[in-house]
Amino acid sequence: MEKKHRGSKNKKFVGIVVAVILVLVVAGFLWTQSAGGIEVETELISVGDVSKVIKQTGIVESDSTSLITAKTVMDIKGFDFQEGDVVSAGQVILSTDVTAAQLTVKSMESEAAGLRIQYNRAKDMTVRSKLLYDQGAISRDEYLMVETSERQLASQLSAINYSIASMKETMDTGGITAPISGVITQVFAKVGETVMPGTPILELSDLDRLYISTYLIASDADQIKTESRVLVSDEDTGFHDPDAAVRKIHLKAIDFVSDLGISQKRVKVEVRMSKLDGVRLGSEMDVEITVDSRTNVVVASKKSIFEFDGKHYAYVVEDGKAALREVEPGLKGEDIWEIRSGLSDGETVIVSPGNDIDEGTKIKQ
After folding, report:
1. N or C: which end of the chain has fewer CB within 10 A?
2. Are 350 and 317 in contact (CB under 8 A)?
3. How far is Cα 242 from Cα 293, in angstroms, rounded to an integer?
4. CA gyration radius for the chain?
5. Which pLDDT tens digit goes with each residue over 323-362?
6. What is the mean pLDDT of the chain?
């Protein structure tokens, strides 16, 4: 009997505690309402501009960049210019050892003479093999083998003749000449080195023809067009160009690996800048491409608009209370949205309304 009595007392005590808590909650709510309402952040609806932009980073490149490589085996005697120097097309930018080049040319000419003899023999053999094949004396595979040998020798002879001509040209000018006018932006080889054909020697760029290349995912690239307005900026250097524009959208989407290692199909987009002061070749820039814009329209921050059951709403403050209002958004910017209907210039709305806000809730601003 005593245990049952104690259990009954405990249940009664718990019930009293719950009732007290409920009373305190209700009292707190009523006190909040009577004391001035729930304190919230609000904003004033206004008329302004809204833009939808695509943000990406881009790299500064040059329309005219020439990678100069060694055409033959050469000993680098010395550079007539250094990185950062301005050169004109046709100027000698790299001196080579002419004596060594002359010896190399003689050796290559001897090799070419031997190849020429082999090629002429192979050419005659091909003619005879064709006659034998037509007469059925040899198989097609045997004839094709002879013909392939002739083509290989012809290719080798053409390559060595090109190398001889290139080396003689280098000897005549005393070295390698600049193919374009511009600035030497990078030097790869060193004085005293012996380099093989195809080895990068230096890079020459026209710094008056800079542009920005960026890569957009295909769905974003489909939203822009040539001459779309672009804001180009660099926070580190303070560069700011609000008058840049899209000059070209490439047709083909290519595989592009993001910084996170994710492979995506992206489209290269070229951006023309309106000024080049302070722009460094190869540097990274922030790019904001305007997809669409509206001017002189009713706008609200997107934090003031919320979606429920496929519709958009906002809480308007009317006579000190929250009033639920259905709205129709238009163009959606990053932070600001166009409001086509439901809100008017000068009205006050609640920013980021919480679950404690409902129709008729008293608001303290």
Report:
1. N
2. yes
3. 15
4. 39
5. 999 999 999 998 999 999 999 999 999 999 999 999 999 9
6. 85
